[in-house]
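Morning run. Coffee first, then this:
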Amino acid sequence: MENIENLTRLEAAVEKLLNTVSEMKQEKLAFKARLASKEQEIETLSRELQAFQGERSKIETKVNGLLNAIEKWENLNGSTESSGVDEAATVEKTLF
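And here it is:
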C-alpha cells in the first residue's frame, strides 16, 4: 500500500515537472519572439538615427552658409556706411 502511495506521489511530481518544463518552453519561445521584435525595433531606430544625423549635418552646413552670407553682407554694408550718409540715403530711396 505504501508503495502505491509513493508511486502516486512520484507520478504527480513527474507530471508537475513535465508541466513546468512545457510552460518554460512556451515562455522561452515567447521571449525569443519578443527579443526578435526588439532587435528589429533597434535596427529601425538605428536607421532613423543615422538619417536624422545626416539631416542634422545638412542643416548645420546650410545654417553655417547662411551665417557666412550674413557676415559678408554685414561687412559690405559696414564698408558702405563708412563712405557716407548720402550713399545710404540713395540706397534707401531705391528700396522704397
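The chain has a mean pLDDT of 87. Good start to the day.
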